[in-house]
Fold each of these.
Amino acid sequence: MKKQATATVTYPKTLLLGVQTPEHYLTNMESYFEEFRNLARTNGVQNPDEMIVKIREIDPGYFLTRGKREEVKAFCDENDIEQVVVSEALSSRQAGNLGELLRCDIFDRTQLILEIFEKSAHTAEGKTQVAIAQLQHKKSRLAGKGVHYAQQSGSIGVRGGFGETAKEKETRHIEDSILQLKRHLAKLHKARETRRKQRLASKEPNICLIGYTNAGKSTILNILTNSNVLAEDKLFATLDTTTRALFIDGQKKGTISDTVGFIQQLPTRLIDAFKSTLSELDYADLLLQVVDVADPGWENHIRVVNEILTDLDVHTPMLYVFNKADKIDTTLLYGALERYQPHVVVSSLSKKSIAPLIEYIKNWNPTDEEETLESE
Ligand SMILES: Nc1nc2c(ncn2[C@@H]2O[C@H](COP(=O)(O)OP(=O)(O)OP(=O)(O)O)[C@@H](O)[C@H]2O)c(=O)[nH]1
Ligand SMILES: [Mg+2]
């Protein structure tokens, strides 16, 4: 029998460190840590150890307070941990100090999300936006005193080694690359702008699906347009905007677009990077905010999405689409759901179970809304 070559892939022994900080006073921690596990899983972290700590204040030098970092250090030493993934965003100084203390590579929330974004970007625009954000992050890590920044996921971080001049040289190189990418991005934006103008000139109404990551936006787009955009039980499966023609009962209603999912504590750099993509939302005629009502943190997710919309200065009319109603008894949520108007409750497992949404779109008339807004 022929001998088969087997490649053994070893993954660094990883600790997922969930940290509850005073900033989380409004957060549903169960949902938040589940989301953190999901982020790590989506990024390829396998069989991690897990530790959750609560801190009363954030230490400027180490992020973790003295007692907690000793606890984490003892755990890392005992379990031969090689890399620690932290649920929060750390400053470069904090990441560097913590890495030195724990003798582990440190990945923070920003890096985790950046790497997932990197894997999910498919269009030239998406890839360029992520590349810029990656370089900016790398630059900020270089700037930190005595910092060693980690390489791509799964690899062991580089230790020490940057002399001041090497560091400066590297920084300049990064700045040049960022500038080049930004120029390239500006060209891509121009092309998008032309496409958008064409669409606006055609006076075709556009509906945009927005919402928290994993809420079911792509699934709804697929069901409404009989297409097969990637929908996965993974965070940030969609990074690039997809627009499709929308027919309801054989009648063309306009176009419908799928967009990047939102997440709490989205690194500011990524919000900036995706602002242009999301600027589409202001030109849409209707937003469908898809919400996974089976997630215990659903109200917090709405808050996050609405805050980002306010930040983007988007004032488009919106329908809340409470999705995944098959997973829980929504009558228990009745009072809470009522607070969000207008809304429909659906499950996107079949065309039949999203009937309330189809009905809403069927009766929706974009010109009515414009008139109402003007008369206000
Ligand atoms: N049980 C159930 N699962 C659903 C429903 N809608 C979507 N899903 C599942 O939820 C997961 C996420 O769905 P997606 O459509 O990829 O979610 P998304 O909002 O596009 O996510 P991102 O692109 O990552 O932001 C997939 O595994 C879907 O099959 C639903 O109504 N009920
Ligand atoms: Mg999607």
Note: The pocket of guanosine-5'-triphosphate (ligand 1) is lined by residues 211, 213-219, 231-233, 235-238, 261, 290, 323-324, 326-327, 347-349 (CB under 6 Å).
Amino acid sequence: MNKLIDLRSDTVTKPTPAMREAMAHAEVGDDVYGEDPTVNKLEETAAEIMGKEAAVFVPTGTMGNLVSILSHCQRGQEVLLGDKSHVFFYERGNAAVVGGLPYHPLPNDRFGMLDPQEVINAVRGTDIHQPPTGLLCLENTHNRCGGTVLSVSQLETLCQIAHTRGLPVHLDGARIFNAALYLNCKVSEIAAEVDSVQFCLSKGLGAPVGSLVVGRQAFIGRVRANRKMVGGSMRQAGVLAAAGLIALADMPLRLYEDHLNAQYLAENLNLIPGVEVDMATVQTNIVMADLDPAGPVAAHWSAQLKKVGVLVNAMGLYRLRFVTHYDVSRAEIETTLKAMAHLE
Ligand SMILES: Cc1ncc(COP(=O)(O)O)c(C=O)c1O
């Protein structure tokens, strides 16, 4: 069989030759002693790009979100977040389990936005029966909503609500570079009003491993301690950070190819009978395709596609998710469309 066309996620990207080269020659040291020069450089670069005081390198986005939430809240406080957010949906309830921080989910609209009034109503008062509110957690781009983007002004609105009530805001910006491309702005503009951001190197940016948390110096000190607590402090992590530096330098520039491929895929999926894509939600590199419930379920479609070498994830009974990335070419998108059109 030819090379598999893997549209399950942008996490499947393999390191580029330049990344492998940089990894092989990375200068390293013990990062728990703060002595890995390549990790230090990655953290400084990340903080600068995001316009924040400091950064810390973590193994995964999940851990980045966890240590951020732990570092903002006191045990027993409640975390406000979207009911379709990655933190709520896909991270094993870790802040509740590890930190004693219950979640208070609020409805995400189809673009991943929270209703400002719902946020206002959700903030707890002084009733001793209720857990005090500790944090507002947002996501941009929004994975489960199909890679949709919150604008800077939407973020400002939600941050202002939180801040005037004394609450910090954490942004799960796993794909913040995709959001910045869509908004035609700098990532630092998206990060400006939030107190912390977690962003991933190992998704569209193509690095093999790693995320960064950015925020104020004192906050990052707490994140470093919590990273140690959950076992995420690494030693000669410079071999990973070296790939991360290439990811930050080179890869944001090519994300537009993924966005164009997603647009093309979505438009043409819409021409296939029994398949429907809400084009308004196709903003970055994720395409959610809804299937006619009179036909086979999504798991059947993904199993059939797998037989012809195309991998996609079922995201519910009648929904398929396609994610474009730098290991998928336009020609492979064409092949995928042909395969979809001929499925039984
Ligand atoms: C929005 C979002 N946040 C966080 C994560 C978690 O990242 P990781 O898989 O590195 O733990 C993901 C992963 O897909 C994600 O899509």
Note: Residues 11, 60-62, 86, 139, 143, 172, 174, 200, 202, 211 surround pyridoxal-5'-phosphate (CB under 6 Å).
